[in-house]
Design goal:
The complex is a heterodimer of chains A (93) and B (179). With 93 residues, chain A is mainly beta. Chain A is 10% helix and 35% strand. Chain A has a four-stranded antiparallel β-sheet, with no helix packed on it. The model of chain A has no long low-confidence stretch (mean pLDDT 95). In chain B, helix 1 packs antiparallel against helix 2. Chain B has two domains: 82 residues, 2-Layer Sandwich (Alpha-Beta Plaits); 76 residues, 2-Layer Sandwich (Gyrase A, domain 2). By secondary structure, chain B is α+β, with helices and mostly antiparallel strands. Chains A and B meet through strand 2 of A and strand 8 of B. Bound molecules: zinc ion (ZN).
Chain lengths: 93, 179
């Protein structure tokens, strides 16, 4: 079980949170301009890295806020946490 | 020999008025208008409550608070907020009947809650004036520590109240006659 540091509430148990998948996937500004393959790529295809990944999490059963978590998908170690709209604390190497 | 005491006492609190208030705490005019209507400034600090006279304001989120007032004052306070905040971006919802509150007290109250919660209940960290939304036995709850008597107030959505009561009664069995 992960202990996730909510930017507002501090460390809380994973059971209070919901994971929203990979972060920083921008909705295409003009969806009509995309073909089916490009739209499917936006909707379904994810990086799925082995190692550091930036994800969206929601503190559903706490303060109700969405925020970003940078997590290592191998070790589950949480590398950083930052609010929506904030830049990641450091750029990926 | 001292009379045996229950390790934990819990009982349903009388109905109370509740109003959910949302707005931007960075908007000075919002804070001022809300404070004028309530006689108390909504606490900006996460997981803290603030109280004065009959009014308690609990932090629910960065832009959300729960206001507790006597049941008979609920609609008057909501109306005062609506008038005061009429030209601000804000949300006011009367919610008193939506949930049930238990007060818990006694030397084993913390142990009882800890059986079903992952929240850090260390009395040095979850001090008087702390509040948090979390889960108790998978039920979404709002836990408040108003002071030392009662130690805790546990607010549960009304639809979960029967389950929560059964859970509390069962979990408290082992503390029935201990100090
Ligand atoms: Zn939170």
């Amino acid at each position: 079980m992960l202990l996730i540091p909510c930017p507002w509430c501090g460390e809380r148990d994973e059971s209070e949170f919901a994971c929203g998948g990979e972060a920083h996937i921008a909705r295409p500004p003009d969806p009509d301009a995309l073909n089916d393959a490009e739209w499917a790529d936006y909707l379904f295809m994810r990086t799925n890295p082995k190692g550091s990944q930036r994800e969206r999490w929601c503190h559903t059963h706490g303060c109700g806020r969405w925020f970003n978590v940078e997590r290592d998908t191998v070790t589950h170690r949480i590398l950083s946490v930052y609010r929506m709209g904030e830049p990641p604390p450091k750029d990926a190497p | 020999m001292a009379e045996p005491a229950r390790g934990v006492e819990f009982r349903v609190c009388p109905p109370r008025g509740r109003i959910e208030l949302r707005g931007d705490p960075g908007d000075g005019a919002f804070v001022e208008a809300a404070s004028n209507a309530l006689g108390l400034e909504p606490p900006p600090t996460p997981n803290r409550s603030r109280s004065w006279a009959d009014t308690v304001i609990l932090w629910l989120g960065p832009d959300a608070w729960l206001i507790e007032v006597p049941a008979e004052a609920e609609h008057a306070v909501a109306r005062a907020l609506e008038e005061s905040l009429s030209d601000r971006h804000a949300s006011i919802a009367v919610a008193g009947a939506g949930s049930v509150t238990w007060s818990l007290t006694g030397p084993r109250a913390r142990d009882l809650l800890a059986k079903g919660m992952t929240l850090d209940l260390d009395p040095e960290r979850f001090r008087a004036g702390c509040c948090a939304r979390s889960l108790l036995a998978k039920v979404p709850v709002l836990l408040h520590r108003p002071g030392n008597d009662p130690l805790y107030e546990l607010t549960v959505p009304r639809s979960y109240a029967e389950f929560a009561r059964d859970w509390l009664e069962d979990a408290a069995l082992e503390y029935a006659d201990t100090r």
